[in-house]
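Figure 3 (text version): structure tokens given as input.
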């Protein structure tokens, strides 16, 4: 698992966050006294997200978060506000009430839903989420903290620091993607990279289930990458996707799309959550997940699944 987790050019907002960002970025600017924070004008738009009762954080973890928050804030060259909700440290150029709404109406219900479907280990260390209101400020903070030149990326997860940095102006997809990485790092640090990226990419565009306790991935722009490869007879078999230990840089876009849509395929068969949990159990003798997939799909070879997957994929063709 690589130290740096980059979110590829993530388009399309995370459904539960729709509208929030556009209201925020047309909002008023505060004076220096409140760190040039951007004001949230309509927190009631989060009606799609379930309310999750906050648990009392461990005293030691709360203290660790507060200490780390001070250290990180001092390294950032632009004015920011801080909100500590252990295990989360929220830092950003927004008003504190905006950070509070982000935690209550997005981060908390997302964590809850991911735990229902996948993760059993509760965060035992601080998770820092830094949200910026523009590409310029995002790039500045990425450089301040990690000396990164972010290019076209909207956000990233620094796994060794358990820190997410993102441009919130681009929508909530990056938050859903990177938060999945962070929580997976705690629950299953040895997850195969293809599956780690597929699961994270699945949650860059999703919605809550009718019961409000699960996240359901929905189609997004990545399908067109796969369909284009399929039309050119350049889409490799599923075995090629699963067997790779590391994602090749020159094939990132295709691999992310492939992994996302294979996760969506498993989700529709109600096998995604069972696959995650069974693979985590089998991780010592199934490094890539191939054997576990063959068991769940009841096939001797993943090539037997290729025709069905490709036929299913064609259903996403834009008409």
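Below: residues designed for each position.
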């Amino acid at each position: 698992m690589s130290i740096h987790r980059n979110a590829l050019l993530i388009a399309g907002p995370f459904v539960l966050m729709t509208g929030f960002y556009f209201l925020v970025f047309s909002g008023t600017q505060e004076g220096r006294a409140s760190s040039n924070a951007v004001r949230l004008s309509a927190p009631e738009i989060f009606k799609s997200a379930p309310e999750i009762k906050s648990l009392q954080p461990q005293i030691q973890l709360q203290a660790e978060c507060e200490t780390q928050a001070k250290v990180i804030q001092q390294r950032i060259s632009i004015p920011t506000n801080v909100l500590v909700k252990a295990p989360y440290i929220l830092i950003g150029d927004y008003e504190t009430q905006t950070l509070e709404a982000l935690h209550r109406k997005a981060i908390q219900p997302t964590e809850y839903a991911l735990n229902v479907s996948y993760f059993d280990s509760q965060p035992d260390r601080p998770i820092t989420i830094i949200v910026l209101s523009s590409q310029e400020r995002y790039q500045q903070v990425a450089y301040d903290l990690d000396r990164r030149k972010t290019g076209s990326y909207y956000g990233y997860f620094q796994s060794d620091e358990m820190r997410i940095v993102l441009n919130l102006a681009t929508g909530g997809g990056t938050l859903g993607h990177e938060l999945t990485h962070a929580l997976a790092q705690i629950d299953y640090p040895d997850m195969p990279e293809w599956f780690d990226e597929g699961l994270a990419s699945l949650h860059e565009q999703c919605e809550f289930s009718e019961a409000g306790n699960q996240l359901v991935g929905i189609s997004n722009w990545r399908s067109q990458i796969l369909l284009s490869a399929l039309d050119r007879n350049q889409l490799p078999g599923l075995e090629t996707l699963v067997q790779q230990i590391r994602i090749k840089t020159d094939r990132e876009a295709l691999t992310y799309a492939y992994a996302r849509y294979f996760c969506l395929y498993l989700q529709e068969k109600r096998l995604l959550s069972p696959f995650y949990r069974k693979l985590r159990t089998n991780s010592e003798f199934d490094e890539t997940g191939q054997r576990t997939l063959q068991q769940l799909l009841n096939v001797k070879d993943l090539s037997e699944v290729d025709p069905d997957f490709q036929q299913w994929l064609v259903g996403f063709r834009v008409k």
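Strands lie at 4-6, 81-85, 88-92, 127-132, 155-158, 163-167, 206-208, 215-217.
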